[in-house]
Specification:
By secondary structure, this protein is an all-alpha fold. The protein is 57% helix and 0% strand. The termini are far apart.
Length: 99
């Protein structure tokens, strides 16, 4: 008997604004830029690369480069992508009960 294992694809489960928001918050809490960018890439994939590129005003090829592992996008670009996928990035005091 052979067991077939397929890679986990988080984008298949990001089907609501709430799920996307929780997923992005969890990535931010990790404090790792690569994890955050991977999460953002999954959200963009869930929403549709072409649609997000248009909504963010970014060329599709540029979007792929921005989301590539190891990329260092500008903060302005990250904010455009966040808005295009329907989330905002906010802050809370570091010592609050939310942190």
């Amino acid at each position: 008997m052979t067991i077939k294992i397929t890679p986990f694809d988080a984008s298949k489960y990001l089907d609501s604004e709430e799920a996307i928001s929780e997923y992005m918050n969890a990535a931010i809490e990790e404090g790792d830029t690569d994890i955050f960018m991977a999460a953002l890439a999954n959200v963009v994939k869930a929403k549709g690369i072409a649609k997000v590129a248009i909504d963010a005003g970014i060329g599709r090829e540029s979007l792929y480069k921005t989301l590539a592992p190891g990329s260092s996008p500008r903060f302005e670009t990250v904010m455009k992508l966040a808005k295009a996928v329907g989330v905002t990035i906010t802050t809370v005091p570091a010592h609050s009960k939310h942190a």
